[in-house]
Amino acid sequence: MKIYVVDDDITVIRVLENIIEDYDLGTVCGYSLNGNDCIAEINTLSPDIVLIDLLMPGKDGVTVVKELKNSNSNALFIMISQVSSKAMIGKAYASGVDFFINKPINVIEVTTVMKSIAEKIHYKKTLENIKKLFSNYDQVTNITEDNHITKIKKIQLILNKLGMSGEKGEKDIIDVCNYLIYNNKNMSDTNIYEVCKALSSNSKNMEQRIRRAISKGLSNIAYLGVEDNMNEIFIMYANSLFNFEEVKAEMDHIRGKGFSNGKVNIKKFIDGLIINTEN
Question: For the chain, what percent of residues have pLDDT higher than 90?
């Protein structure tokens, strides 16, 4: 995520830069110390998020947000202020502000708000990417919207059963399934590199997150098998989502009988997820 900061206090800018860098919240692509100089640069840099002070000499934050909105900026705006006036805050939201952060800067508040807005951006971009892939969205999909939502919910439930909820690659796996279901395809028709390339500007990182998340699922199901090979989740998914030989290798590794972990097969896992939604 590209982030631009506008504040008349350079100390505040440096604090925000440090938080963004330390907590891996994105990249600060630029900053400005007043509301007069930032508009042209923001329109040029096209950041995903603009962190902007409410009260600044010259042009205040509300005015800047309005002007950027009028210039069709796609950025989301986080207002920073010590102001507690409900009328002033209401005016800020009415101008197009998406979130508010209070001064003095609090690390927890900044990270919470930034992660929330990042998730909003993530899903918005994913939906836009999926729609761009098709010249006629209504014709290429042969499933109803309700049926599609049901399938995604089933996939989320399976990932939860495998202990994969909260893994960084969980959302990426769901995005890939979204793409395949809408396109009426399976992984045998394509490859993970091409799908990630269609959905992300950094396909390599996306594929790595997916592989790590599936490895976590493999490890979890192997532990279930070691404890009880008649476990319902183990029986249901050990062979439908993974190559059983690799599950067994992972189980042997857990028992101390094998030198290497089991290997994941992304194609089999993704196709298995989608097939399981048909049940």
Answer: 52
